[in-house]
């Protein structure tokens, strides 16, 4: 009987190459829960400890890190581009809408530890995604599993961040900007609810308090006693760096109070108040205000969706050694 050994060998070799290539591909970035389980088992613990340590001395890092993940993902995907500093200062994090971003030091700290324990394995984009989740948990939000395996990108440009959702934009514009990224009106409501923790600078209140839609007057939808309070904190011509809680009365707890505030017309940010201006977003605000458990669960689902935006794999990205610099 004739056996085609050469043919079998060729098929075997081709098969091995395919298996090898796909293995190589999966090592170079593929989103899944527990991506670092074998590659760097301490990865998630190291990030969690770095965030917890920072939070213990400065609770404000929780909202800072949560915001950082959104701002990383919404421009060119979750690729760590928000962390880059360039010699000419023309990097993404210098864009207008990124003003006030903080928490970079916590990411750098976690990265330094990971580089000493598992050099060249854990991406900066993943550290940001994990740190955001850990921040939610530290402020008493619900734990959700973070998919990992993102690679870090090769570019960071101020010009790519010129079209961020703005705090003074109407609901339609916010919906369109989210939808352009594959995020629904439900995601818009859930993710905006991240404003249940943290603060804004008066810088972002100017239009709402002084020149709403070019009228030269404050936003008429703000409940009058609350308007007086806001104007007291952020007077016209005052210091734009003064910060105020966005979820008035509950800014340190990850809860549904922000939805109550929106309904009571005591939301701080104009973009949060605007969620009442469309029947779909309004219905979600009303629903989540009375369904805290659903909110806690669904927030995690929308965060996972956010974390999938523009994830880099293969030759399109790498693992940075230092998060603020390209290798
Ligand atoms: C609708 C789109 C959004 C707009 C217009 C918006 C706008 C803003 C503004 C103006 C601030 C104040 C920044 C400062 O003064 O430092 C802020 C803070 C914050 N944002 Fe958003 N945001 C949006 C969506 C999101 C999303 C999707 C997340 C996260 C999932 C998020 C998380 C946060 C957090 C946690 C803070 C507090 C930061 C701190 O305390 O330092 N935001 N946002």
List strands and helices in order, with pairings.
Layout: H1 5-27, E1 32-33, H2 43-57, H3 61-74, H4 104-117, H5 124-138, E2 147-148, H6 171-179, H7 185-192, E3 199-201, H8 206-210, H9 224-233, E4 243-245, H10 257-263, H11 270-273, H12 279-289, H13 292-306
Antiparallel strand pairs: 1-2, 3-4
The structure holds protoporphyrin IX containing FE.
Structural description of this entry:
The structure is a single chain. This protein has 327 residues and is mainly alpha-helical. The protein folds into two domains: 32-164 and 307-316, Peroxidase, domain 1 (Orthogonal Bundle), CATH 1.10.520.10; 171-302, Peroxidase, domain 2, CATH 1.10.420.10. The chain is 46% helix and 3% strand. It has helices spanning 5-27, 43-57, 61-74, 104-117, 124-138, 171-179, 185-192, 206-210, 224-233, 257-263, 270-273, 279-289, 292-306; strands at residues 32-33, 147-148, 199-201, 243-245. The strands form two sheets. A two-stranded antiparallel ribbon has the order 1-2. Strands 3-4 form a two-stranded antiparallel sheet. The radius of gyration is 22 Å and the shape is globular. The termini are far apart. Residues 17-28 have low confidence and may be disordered. The protein binds protoporphyrin IX containing FE (HEM).
């Amino acid at each position: 009987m004739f056996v085609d050994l050469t043919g079998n060998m060729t098929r075997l070799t081709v098969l091995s190459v395919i298996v090898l290539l796909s293995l190589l591909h999966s090592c170079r970035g593929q989103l899944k829960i527990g991506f670092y389980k074998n590659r760097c088992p301490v990865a998630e613990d190291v990030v969690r400890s770095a965030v917890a340590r920072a939070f213990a001395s400065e609770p404000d890092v929780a909202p800072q890190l949560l915001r950082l993940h959104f701002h990383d993902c919404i421009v060119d995907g979750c690729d760590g581009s928000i962390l880059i500093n360039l010699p000419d200062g023309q990097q993404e994090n210098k864009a207008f809408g990124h003003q006030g971003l903080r928490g970079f030091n916590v990411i750098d700290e976690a990265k330094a530890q990971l580089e000493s324990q598992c050099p060249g394995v854990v991406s900066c984009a993943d550290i940001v995604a994990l740190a955001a989740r850990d921040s939610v948990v530290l402020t008493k939000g619900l734990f959700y599993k973070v998919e990992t395996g993102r690679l870090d990108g090769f570019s960071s440009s101020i010009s790519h961040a010129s079209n961020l959702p703005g705090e003074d934009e109407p609901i339609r514009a916010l919906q369109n900007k989210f939808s352009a990224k594959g995020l629904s009106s439900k995601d818009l409501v859930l993710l905006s609810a991240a404003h249940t923790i943290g603060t804004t600078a008066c810088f972002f209140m100017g239009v709402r308090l002084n020149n709403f839609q070019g009228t030269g007057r404050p936003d008429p939808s703000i409940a009058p006693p609350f308007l007086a309070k806001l104007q007291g904190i952020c007077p016209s011509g005052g210091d734009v760096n003064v910060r105020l809680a966005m979820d008035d009365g509950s800014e340190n707890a990850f809860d549904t109070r922000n939805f109550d505030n929106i309904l009571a017309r005591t939301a701080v940010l104009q973009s949060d108040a605007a969620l009442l201006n469309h029947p779909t977003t309004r219905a979600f605000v009303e629903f989540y205000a009375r369904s805290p458990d659903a909110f806690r669960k669904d927030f995690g689902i929308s965060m996972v969706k956010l974390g999938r935006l523009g994830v880099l794999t293969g030759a399109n990205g790498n693992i940075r050694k230092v998060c603020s610099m390209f290798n």
